[in-house]
Amino acid sequence: MKTITAVFILSLLTTYLLTPWVRRLAMRMGVMDLPDARRVHTEPIPRWGGLAIYIGVAVGMLAGLLRLYLLAPSDEVFLGRAFQFLGLLLVGTGVLIVGMLDDKKQFSALIQMGALLLAGLVVQLFGVQVEGFAAPIGGKFSEAKWIPLGIWTVPITAGWIFVISKTMDTIDGLDGLAAGVSAIAAFALALMALQAADMLDQPYPNWLIAITAAAIAGAAGGFLRYNFNPARIFMGTGGAQFLGFMLGGLSVIGAFKTATAFAIFIPVLVFGLPLLDAGLAVVRRALSGHPIYKPDKKHIHHQLLERGLTQRQTVLILYGVATAMAIVAVILFRRAMG
Hints:
Layout: H1 2-29, E1 32-33, E2 45-46, H2 49-71, H3 75-105, H4 109-122, E3 132-135, E4 145-148, H5 153-170, H6 177-199, H7 203-227, H8 236-253, H9 255-258, H10 265-270, H11 272-288, H12 300-306, H13 311-336
């Protein structure tokens, strides 16, 4: 627990201290988010805050892994345990870079989709996969029957990671919303991993899941100092998709594989707010005849603003919704383990 707390604090401080430098870098490079009819802000705001988030996650995560490396009986044992997580961070680096390029050059929706799906395929080379789920509903962990996905493992994993990465980007429409929701989801995944490590007597990979989740939560929290309304910097496509990719991949390693009775519902609840918003957007655009990839100003946060709420009020309400869903997920997760 001390290691996980230290990772959280280290990631938070790293992102907190680096964000002003990243802000100046974005301004020098001309990477600015300009106001338009779809955006809420009224003046240019620097992007690329995702770079500070990434460095915070990487520093905290690698420090935690180093601690476990020093405790491991051999290099081979450590690499066997850490391989998935190192792969997740490595591919996540590519997601960040493509997203930062998008922040500057504005890629098409098709290119963004292709890049995220490719990342979802490549990360599976490191063993990050939804291999199946446990059944029946209501059974205890020791009694559950494992249902493998077979050939559907690859497309389902890539699709899940794509959806979480993209939906986290989609809700990044108000100051602090995506960072706060990411921190809440990361806390939920960390709590589930710690529960699994304790109740199932399985320290690995659950400690590694908790360490990675703590690094994500800390980095997102450190960034909120500059991103909460009124925001001085945005995380941009790179930051939002990196956070979504890391959280989606982490849920594949953790919640899908550890929970039994509610294996499918738990990750959905953890990411309930962005998934709900994305689902409503798809239905809304399909019914209106508009392309589902075309952005609009009718997301949940936009509709709350239209009802007279301020940005801060809207974000705090949505934090509450995300927290409630995460709490339910953690409770169901504990029940699933018996």
